[in-house]
Design brief:
four-stranded antiparallel β-sheet, alpha/beta, binds ligand TLP, 343 residues, seven-stranded mixed β-sheet, 2 domains, 43% helix, 14 helices, 13 strands, Aspartate Aminotransferase, domain 2, Aspartate Aminotransferase, domain 1
C-alpha cells in the first residue's frame, strides 16, 4: 500500500528503534528523565530559545501555547484553515476559553495588513486580542512556506500592539529544509513555537513547546499536567525525537522532490485541478472534477488499487510524502491516479 494520507503514518526506522531501546530514562514529572532533558535542551538550543517542554502531541503543544499566553474571554487571531481552527476539536474555546478571530489567508498565509485589521481596538467595548498564531509550513494551505518578510511585518504589527506571537511549527523543519534558512530565522519572531517530531521527522510520538519566557513555560507545564500530558519514563520517546532531529532533517528535501514529482504527474490527468508550482514542501492538495463519484468513492477506488489519500472537504484531496515513500512508489502512485481518476 502506498500510504499518502499523512506524514504521521511513518514507522520508526531500525536505528531509531535501537536508540529508543537504549534510552536512559527517569520520571519526567520530577524532571528526572535524562533523555527528555537532553531533547528539550537540544531543541531549545536549535531555536536559540531558553526552554523547551516535551509533550505528547502537536495539538497539545498548540493548546498549551494558547492557554499559557491568554486569559479566558480574550480573542486570538488565527488563519481560517489553520490546524487550530480545523483539527483541534475546538480546544481553544473549550479549554482556554478564548474566541477565535479567523483571517482568510492566501494558501494559509496572512498578510500583516490583514492581521492589523483583525486586532481589536483597545476600548471598553472590544474583546482584547491575546495572541496571534501563524502556521509554518501551512498544512491546509498545501505545505506553504511562510515568507520570512511577511513574518517580520506581522511581528512588527504585533510589537506595536504588545501582542505575543505563537508559531504552529509542526512542520517547521520542512520549511527549514526547503529554504535552507536556520530554524532560528523563523523562531526569533515568536514568543512560543510548537514543533512536531512525529510528522516528516519520523518519530512515533512527541512534540515540543519552545520559548524563552520562563513564566510561559512554567504555566504550560502546569497545564500540561491538567491536560493529562505529563509523562513518566518518556525518555524512550524522546530518544526517537533526538534520533529524528539528528538523522531526518536534511532528508526532508527528498520528500519535497517526491511531492513536486507527484504534482506534475497529477497535473497530466484531465479531471485533476492542481497548481503544481504551489507545491513547496511535502503536501500536495488537488481537486478532482468527477460528477459520478463521491469523494468517499474516489478514495475507496484508489485504496483498492493500492494508494491511500485523504479527502479534505468539497472536491479537495491531500497527498503527503514522507520517509516511507520512495521515488518508485511516486511513479506507481502516478500510474494508479491516472487509471482511477480517468475511469
Ligand atoms: N496534522 C494532521 C491532522 O491532524 C490533520 C495531519 O495529518 O496533517 N499542527 C499542524 C500544522 C498539523 O498538521 C498537525 C497534525 C498538528 C498541529 C497536530 O499534531 P498532532 O497530530 O500530533 O496532535
Amino acid at each position: 500500500m502506498i500510504d499518502l494520507r499523512s506524514d504521521t503514518v511513518t514507522m520508526p526506522t531500525d536505528g531509531m528503534r535501537k536508540a529508543m531501546a537504549r534510552a536512559e530514562v527517569g520520571d519526567d514529572v520530577y524532571g528526572e528523565d535524562p533523555t527528555v532533558n537532553r531533547l528539550q535542551d537540544m531543541v531549545a538550543a536549535m531555536l536559540s530559545k531558553r526552554y523547551a517542554l516535551f509533550v505528547p502531541s502537536g495539538t497539545m503543544a498548540n493548546q498549551l501555547a494558547v492557554r499559557a499566553q491568554t486569559q479566558p474571554g480574550q480573542e486570538i487571531i488565527v488563519e481560517s484553515t489553520s490546524h487550530i481552527v480545523r483539527y483541534e476539536q475546538g480546544a481553544a474555546g473549550a479549554l482556554a476559553g478564548v474566541q477565535l478571530h479567523w483571517v482568510s489567508g492566501e494558501r494559509g498565509i496572512m498578510t500583516a495588513e490583514q492581521v492589523e485589521c483583525a486586532i481589536r481596538p483597545n476600548d471598553p467595548h472590544s474583546i482584547p486580542t491575546g495572541l496571534i498564531c501563524l502556521e509554518n509550513t501551512h498544512n491546509a494551505g498545501g505545505g506553504t512556506i511562510y515568507p520570512l518578510s511577511t513574518i517580520e511585518k506581522i511581528k512588527s504589527v504585533a510589537n506595536q500592539h504588545g501582542i505575543p506571537m505563537h508559531l504552529d511549527g509542526a512542520r517547521l523543519m520542512n520549511a527549514v529544509a526547503a529554504t535552507t534558512l536556520p530554524p532560528t530565522a523563523y523562531a526569533q519572531h515568536f514568543d512560543t513555537v510548537s514543533l512536531c517530531l512525529s510528522k516528516g521527522l519520523g518519530a512515533p510520538v512527541g512534540s515540543l513547546l519552545i520559548s524563552s519566557r520562563q513564566d510561559v513555560i512554567e504555566r504550560a507545564r502546569r497545564f500540561r499536567r491538567m491536560y493529562g500530558g505529563a509523562m513518566r519514563q518518556a525518555g524512550v520517546l524522546a530518544a526517537a525525537g533526538i534520533y529524528a532531529l539528528e538523522h531526518h532533517v536534511t532528508r526532508l528535501q527528498e520528500d519535497h522532490t517526491h511531492a513536486k514529482k507527484l504534482a506534475r504527474l497529477l497535473q497530466q490527468i484531465p479531471s485533476v485541478r492542481i497548481s503544481a508550482q504551489h507545491v513547496e514542501t511535502n503536501i500536495v492538495i488537488f481537486e478532482v472534477i468527477d460528477q459520478r463519484r463521491t469523494p468517499q468513492e474516489i478514495v475507496a477506488a484508489l485504496k483498492q488499487q493500492g494508494v491511500l489519500i485523504n479527502a479534505i472537504g468539497g472536491r479537495s484531496y491531500r497527498a503527503v510524502t514522507h520517509l516511507n515513500i520512495s521515488a518508485k512508489q511516486i511513479e506507481e502512485a502516478g500510474t494508479i491516479f491516472a487509471r482511477v481518476l480517468t475511469s
